[in-house]
Amino acid sequence: MKKLLTGRTVTTLALLTAVVSTSAFGSMLVANAETPAATAASKGKAAIQAKAVPSPRLLTPTNHTLLMIDHQPQMAFGTSSINIQELRNNVTGLAKAAKAFNVPTVLTTVAAKSFSGPIFPEIQAVFPDQEPIDRTTMDAWEDQRVVDKVNSYGNKKLVVSGLWTEVCDLSAVLSAIDQGYEVYIVTDTSGGVSKEAHDMAIQRMIQAGAAPITWEQYLLELQRDWARSETYKATTDIAKEHGGAYGLGIIYSQAMFGGNEGH
Fold first, then answer.
1. What is the mean pLDDT of residues 141-159?
2. Domains defined along the chain, listed by start
3. pTM
4. For 201, which of 151, 166, 259, 261 could close a Cys bridge (C-beta 3.0–4.6 Å)?
5. Residue 250 near residue 240, CB atoms below 8 Å
6. Buried b / exposed e across 49-88, counting CB within 10 Å, b at 16+?
7. Residue in 168, 174, 186, 213 annotated catalytic
8. With bands split at pLDDT 50, 70 and 90, how would you rate the model's confidence at 3?
């Protein structure tokens, strides 16, 4: 009986010891568990405290000016890096986006009456009361009237689109960057005499600090929240008319089940 009791006692003590040891180990784990911030601090890293605010690098309707350079027939004739029908569609979408969000827009042409012809009628239709600044210089930034107009709006960011990419866009973009502007180049509303000419010019602008964007990205970056009801219809209308498959998707969703991204 004594031996049996002793055996039970030993077994009980062993179980108790195991429980205590496990509890102690668990407590040690809890004590040593660290929050992500504490873990980062222990490794010599600064804890990230992110906030739900947009990047200052993003475009807004009020922080930039749009400069549209030499979208003219003669310049389009020599463009082969993009299909001209697609180019005209994209340029019109860009112009309409700027107009819908009241973005200050500067239009400029080169030798409109003597060589290159008038600005694309689609652009002029969006800005019917605005006469493009006609130049003789290939570099729009070498015409003081253009620079004065851009400066007059007081925006540090400048969005550029034009023909040709490797001449008119490139020279204006490099010049504006060197004078303190943050420049964004719209790649699919610009075009060069060849794909290589366009691509190399885009690379050169990026190396100088320009940010490449596309026209549809521009439109949606300005909207950015479908709850912004004052520009919701204009944004979706532009997408439906010029946004290809995306626009067709909007048409389908609205027709089939009253789709509305703004809830």
1. 98
2. 64-220 (3.40.50.850), 225-257 (no CATH)
3. 0.82
4. 166
5. yes
6. eeeeeeeeeebebeebbbbbbbbbeebbeebebbeeeebb
7. 168
8. very low
Contact between 191 and 165 under an 8 Å Cβ cutoff? The reply is yes
Helical pair 170-178 and 195-208, crossing angle rounded to 10 deg: 0
Token pair 């020279």 in the structure block, residue: 171
The DSSP code sequence of 75-95 is HHHT--SS-HHHHHHHHHHHH
Look at residue 41 and tell me whether its pLDDT is greater than 60.
no
The pLDDT of residue 73? 98
With a CB cutoff of 8 Å and minimum separation 6, the contacts of 40 are: 46, 47, 48
pLDDT digits (tens, 9 = 90+) for 80-117: 999 999 999 999 999 999 999 999 999 999 999 999 99
Q: What is the mean pLDDT of the chain?
A: 88
What's residue 254's pLDDT? 87
Examine the residue annotation and report whether 168 is marked as an active-site residue of this protein: yes
- What are the CA-CA distances from residue 258 to residues 46, 238, 252 (Å)? 47, 18, 9
SS3 label, residue 133: strand
* In the predicted structure, residue 20 carries a pLDDT above the cut 50: no
Kindly state the tokens that stand for 157: 């960011």
**CB pairs under 8 A, 24+ apart, for 260-263?**
261/226, 261/232, 261/236, 262/226, 262/227, 262/228, 262/229, 262/232, 263/226, 263/227
Report pLDDT for 35. 56
Would the pLDDT of 257 be above 90?
no
Please give the structure tokens belonging to residue 39: 């873990």
Which amino acid would we find at residue 187?
T
